[in-house]
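Hi Y.,

Following your request, here is the sequence exactly as I used it, all 448 residues.
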Amino acid sequence: MSSYDAIVIGGGFAGLSAASALSEAGARVLVLEARPGLGGRATAFTDPATGEVVDNGQHVLLGCYRETFRFLRRVGADGDVTLQRRLAVEMIDARGRRSRLKCPALPAPWHLLTGLLGWEALGIRDRLAALRIAPALRAAQARLARGEAGLDVAPDETVEQWLAAHGQNARLREMLWEPLALAALNQSPREAAAGSFIRVLAEMFGRDPDAAAIGLPAVPLDRLYAEPARRFVEARGGAVRTGAPARVHTMNGRVSHVTVREERLEAPHVITSVPWFALEDLLPDPDPSLAGLIRDATRLGSSPIVTVNMWFDRPVLDVPFLGLPGRAMQWVFEKRFVFGEQASHLSLVSSGAEDIVARSNDEIAALAVEEIRAALPEARQAALTRAKVVREKRATFSLKPGEPPRPGTRTPVAGLHLAGDWIDTGLPGTIESAVVSGHAAAAAVESA
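Below is the corresponding structure, written out as tokens. Let me know if you'd prefer a different format.
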């Protein structure tokens, strides 16, 4: 038995943001995480060969992640994110030409337009074509400002189709929109529905010129938010347990209890923040009213991310991160700039990695080395000493047209609430979507 006001299942961004919000409001919260450590799909591990702490995948924050920064401020961790003052990105295109997109300190949207006009990677026709997307973004921003959930786009229209319909030519798509779409959606623009991407662009390039600024965690992910959130919850009378696989039991249209192995736990509210693919196993005897929810969650597709962490015998990158458009590995991050000199590895990321996720580790590592050496002259002279491949086969949910609808926070079962990046936040499967859902679940509990 227990005497908690709420039980939160899952120790990632969604679960810990919900638990910390409830704790801040005075509730006594129990967090249950099945894995040995906190963090869910955004965590870190120690590489056995080098002893360095390695993120399971590179995660990036944006200035428009308002709820994420609210969560980090709550638990005292916002100082561990290095946030640009303005969007600035260096890219090396498929032909090896290096350029820099930098948005000046001007009011939106002039900061973006001025940045594009001065970007040497684009020709004059490309820059003029970029202006043609502005009316669609202004319309989306107006809808968001009015609190309207829907966007003026057909549900079966893909990102690629939407960009083409708004005059974005091949060079613009290669250098700007496709890298953004892959990073934000974790899915090919040819496959992903346009709605979530339009929402991301409207948020990034809205009234606040700092909204598109890129933030990198200055510490490994578990230290960034998971451990600070644990301390926050425990300091307010709650508890956080790892290695605690939970099951939720229902009876007569409401939550009955939670079990961890043979232990029975009770609380008037349960928030489940497990991924879509784990929901069915979480509910061994579900209420009949949950049948549609479970069916849709089971049918929802997934999209993978592959990260290759590599160690060279010398530094090969002179900036914290670099875009590599037109390649299998679309971004490379130099961890020395992020974690300090205690880190010496690069992280190369392939989002929407369906084409390579099934290859062997040696094949993926060889591809990453080939691409980084083709892009960076310094890497051609350096010796590779180690490569570590990390696959997240179900890193995010699929955004293909025709996927099952995403559920809301509330369920037909009294006392049972949903959180997670896959909940219907209007955003793709990002950190911000996870935290938005966690805060929404906490608000639902408080108002019940």
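The first strand starts at residue 6 and ends at 9.

Thanks again,
Q.
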